[in-house]
Amino acid sequence: MPDSDAPEGSSSEARDSTADVTDAGRSDAQDAPPVPDADSGPVFVGDGSTAPWWHFTTEAGCLAEGIPTAADRPAMSDPSSGELNPIYLAVTRLLLGTGIDDKTNTQDLNAWQNLGFTMDGVCTNSLTCQTAAGKPITETACQNTTYVPYDGNNCRDNEIGKLYQISASSPFIGGLFGLTEPDINCEFKRGGDAYIFKISGYNGQLNDDQVRLDLYSSMGLVNLPSWTCRKTIDQPLDTNWPSHADWVSNEQWTIANINFALNAQDAGNDLPDSKWHDSTAYVRNGWLVARMPPGTVLWADGERTPIRDFVNIMYRGLIVAPLHQGLDGLWAVGDDSFSGDGGTASLRSGTLAWATLGGDLLQGFQDMGFCQNMCESYKTVTDYLNTHQDVVAETPASPTSTPCDALSIAFGFHARQTTYLPFDIRTPGPRDVDPMRQALGDTLPFYNCPEPVNCNAPLQGCTCMPGTGCVVPPNACGDAGAGDASYDSGDASDAGGAD
Description:
This protein is an alpha+beta fold. The chain has one domain. The chain is built from 7 helices and 16 strands.
């Protein structure tokens, strides 16, 4: 797909940007794009632009990131020779907002400000949106009586981006539980686990008015490489992991069978339909836009990795990805040789954005064994989730008196095509299936707050001591003197303002 320096489109800049992705739960018939009238004019042919079009200018004159909507689908598809076979993309990199550059090991604590969209349609304490007197504009689209949000650049909503920044830099969260950008991306690079996207019904052109996107969680490659990110969770991350070879496109992946819809039909070598899909996604200017149904589970099965992977539950979920085809004919989103979240059109990252319920996110921490045993660290996280609601989970905030009940979250991502078919379908093992079962509303037993996998973490039920937290049992890791540390997180301060 060719790149272009054509100017950005402006067809949707005057729209109401709060009319976003919240109708994702409608049926396919309701969501179907309009059928063009045969006498309505010439066949639509795109202008070759690969520019995003969803930016808009607020009444105060601020440039806001906006959000792609269902109404933005192209009126018609570009002419093509027909649909491509389904394209499978495995995520190779996540950008969580912690801004860690794998090549230089530098960190940008403000990277979260460049991820996400203007989900609520207004600007709230964004550094890029101020009055003529230099004071921040504090528009809100829902009510939070205890906290005024701080949007990122161009009014992006990403309250959880700040929390991930705290988590990753804290030795009590990132260090003990592997919840860091390098840990996650090392396993994606190695093929230890992945998110898998299937794009079907796509014409391969810059504009296609209807495609289908299915989301699956993977248990990693069938044949994992000999190198590891961490030998065990209590061992340090291999600092040389970025220099290892990437997985190659013709390697076989495993897929957790609990992704499949109950009514999914046998699809031969292709994957059956996922529970989490958008059958009325579209591609405009080369950007794939998919709206995920409420309750979509975003999860990379960590059964074969040292860390427990985080289960995310999406509301108003949106996947926006600039598709491009390499000289080798394979499709990709972004480029792993590039560490940032911008750049030329072929290097731009995709975006996963959604609203998350504080209770769901807290459950994700608890699934890893991050509970009251972590004392002040746990209190910091729960306090943050209880106070930082900036959006609503089910519908746009209208009127503005609607209480905020969710937190905005956004990841950047890169992905590459995987070509080996069929996939290896497996049932997840006992360690990680319980969180997924709970996310699906399964009635099978769920063991909340298991003992942490890391033997350096305090055990559940320990007594928090003021100023020291819970003391790790002596020789917890089987090494002499291993129990001399205690864990408290008084330094993990709340990110209440712009960072």
